[in-house]
Amino acid sequence: MKIAIQGELGSFSHEAAVTFVPDATVVPCAVAADVLHALDESQVEAAAIPVENSLAGSVIDFYDLFFSHEFAIERELQMRIRHNLIVTPGTEMESLRQVFSHPVALAQCKEFFAAHPILKPTAYYDTAGSVQHILEEKSDQLAAIASRQAAAQYGAKILEEGIEDRAGSFTRFWLIRPRGAVRPEANPSKLSIAFSLENRPGALLQALGTFAARKLNLTKIESRPINGRPWEYMFYADVTISSSDQASAVLDDLRKICPALKEMGRYSTGNRASN
Fold it and tell me: How many other C-beta atoms can be found within 10 angstroms of the C-beta atom of residue 102?
């Protein structure tokens, strides 16, 4: 199976893809839009996408694209994010002066930089890409922060493991596929949807009331601006369900009050995996 990811080989999305499908062929894409385009055009059979980090919040690059693309969520994974200080082979801590990584990864390692003030954190477009960069530069003054997969992918050396500030950093990933390729689960535990509302008092309260009336737990809600319609928003929600019938019933309720409604998937809550 070909699975698209955003980022370079060796990224956390790469790890998620091969956790979902161990023998997958991973296809790296530069930006989120390229991932969904590859799926739309059948260049890949699936995509592994990050949707939320337990510390940094939602991955809005993907949320801003969800409503304009057709897909279904097949599975969910909660992956432990462990940041490692990675260098070229032979490099030691004493020579380091600059550390490259994605801005979110740098922000999650503030205590490490406070303990090593001589090191300059430098933003880079991708964690795995930062490992490629320091290897190409061949300097013993440069390091990267990335996953164990990235170090193995490019033949780099892990100088320090687990340098993130908190051990409780997890990222939720979805494995998404074309809608017709996903078989309905017999007993899904989660429903993900997108919906819009009329611009009137009480509209959001009425929508949320449909979940409360059926005693369904809303585990996440996210609002994103609708492109070309100032001050109007699309809402994305994850709901805990105990059966597919519950999902169908609440969707029927929402269709009566929502101008636009999209079901993105009925699936099982993801297990936690450690990298």
Answer: 22
